[in-house]
Amino acid sequence: xxxxxxxxxxxxxxxxxxxxxxxxxxxxxxxxxxxxxxxxxxxxxxxxxxxxxxxxxxxxxxxxxxxxxxxxxxxxxxxxxxxxxxxxxxxxxxxxxxxxxxxxxxxxxxxxxxxxxxxxxxxxxxxxxxxxxxxxxxxxxxxxxxxxxxxxxxxxxxxxxxxxxxxxxxxxxxxxxxxxxxxxxxxxxxxxxxxxxxxxxxxxxxxxxxxxxxxxxxxxxxxxxxxxxxxxxxxxxxxxxxxxxxxxxxxxxxxxxxxxxxxxxxxxxxxxxxxxxxxxxxxxxxxxxxxxxxxxxxxxxxxxxxxxxxxxxxxxxxxxxxxxxxxxxxxxxxxxxxxxxxxxxxxxxxxxxxxxxxxxxxxxxxxxxxxxxxxxxxxxxxxxxxxxxxxxxxxxxxxxxxxxxxxxxxxxxxxxxxxxxxxxxxxxxxxxxxxxxxxxxxxxxxxxxxxxxxxxxxxxxxxxxxxxxxxxxxxxxxxxxxxxxxxxxxxxxxxxxxxxxxxxxxxxxxxxxxxxxxxxxxxxxxxxxxxxxxxxxxxxxxxxxxxxxxxxxxxxxxxxxxxxxxxxxxxxxxxxxxxxxxxxxxxxxxxxxxxxxxxxxxxxxxxxxxxxxxxxxxxxxxxxxxxxxxxxxxxxxxxxxxxxxxxxxxxxxxxxxxxxxxxxxxxxxxxxxxxxxxxxxxxxxxxxxxxxxxxxxxxxxxxxxxxxxxx
Length: 711
Fold this sequence. Notes:
By secondary structure, this protein is mainly beta. Helices cover about 5% and strands about 40% of the residues. The protein is built from 2 helices and 60 strands. The model is unreliable at about 550-555 (pLDDT under 50).
């Protein structure tokens, strides 16, 4: 049998979404998911021949053919996918599946998604308040319109609709007004109505007039009247005046310098008298043209009063201040900060000189750009000054450009010093290159290092870095004792070495670890296998070891900074309280500490108290966890009695060290005599210390690293 010789083609694509068949332009858009396709045939169909309609290569249906008129039609049901492009073609097919010529394509985009409702806002909320929706400007801005989409608006609650143009509406007529709007996209989908915009339109100026009756200066404690055109050194003169009529509700007296608004006066409604204390820039020889007017809540102003001229003329100090040095007193690199250099000290010491002894009311002001930081203490004999600011900082670096200048009691300033630029960053002045570290045994993803620092004091730091992305490598912790009583007896005290040793006979032997959560001993003796109570939330291998808060328990903690691992969402830092909502079924490990010493890259904590420290840090992406100990040593320069003085790390040091090891979040764990790090040496078949504690204490909790290769 030969292929069909009759040819079919598409003559029309129609939509009946409105109840009437309306042609859809070729390549147009429609929201009708059941359009009507119509077409013609070049001749009568033979027996077994039929007309099939395709979308691209996908058959969507067989058309109904009128053999008398040689026309066909089909109304397919299309998936209502927003923005779906259909390319319809038609072809005659015989009983053997042989095809005739394929027609030209007819395209349409099906879009059944309604556009968003437009948003209406006042173009300008004039007057004394920018949020009261009382305005003298009737222009309403329309946003959220689709490109080319027609839109309508109504200002009578939808009784009548007007076609909108551009992106705004002009509403006229004083009083309460309300506008709504809607839009229709190119496919015929209509949006929901915009939230009504209700406002009050007021375009009438106040009837009352304001006038200026006089200006007073007060440089010596006694007010002195100033005649129009006078000169004064007072930058805070007091303006006085009156209004011609009692003010209506919402009206105020506004004071201007020329066309510039200075502020709103205080009015006595019984006398209709007003006063305004002006605050003027200390610019020598500036002439002011003060005016007053009445302004209503919509911003309509009465005719301004006649100008009352006044010249403010002052002489600034001539003493010059100079910044000599910026000194870094914190971190591992201290001393002078080079011009344009960087520092991790957010309380650096600024020192400088002045060219002459300051006057009785003169001080040295220190600025960062145009922002006043504070005032320096000046030695009038040596002409030297110093100042220690507290500067906001960021982990990525905050640029500062400090200047100093002499300022007198009237606020007039002498010449500015040369700027002293530097960058303040809390990313620290020390970092560690983990590519130089040593693997801990043969375990993948687990590195160890020991670092000795000499500044700002001798410190011995040991660290393990755990790559949580390594399959089978994870963190664990000391498990609950038996019997377990939450908040009373939760674990048995062991040294970290003893905990690692004991784990070797279990199904999850530890590779290494550090001491972890804060604890208290019951009955309080520093012995092995004594019941302990841990502070804050502790979870080990998905088992609860310690609740965040135990009512009436000995910890009394209302919230503890906590590191926890979730089997679904990964690693987290959070302050956990009894009200914190966590899913215990997904928490695999958690430990609470004394405080956060590193948060989003910013170092936190005490900078004074030194001791042995244990810390836990996490990289910003949650991939790496750093377990760290900082040893302490007895200060040989101090007497041993009545108790030794230790050289160790502060909380701030712990944050900076964790940051240097690559962490962006850090937790200060139990320290002092509890600080210890150990590992299982498979070669010698025994546990060994990785740090140098002055003594090993039995602790209530240790954090361990476990490796179980995937099967």
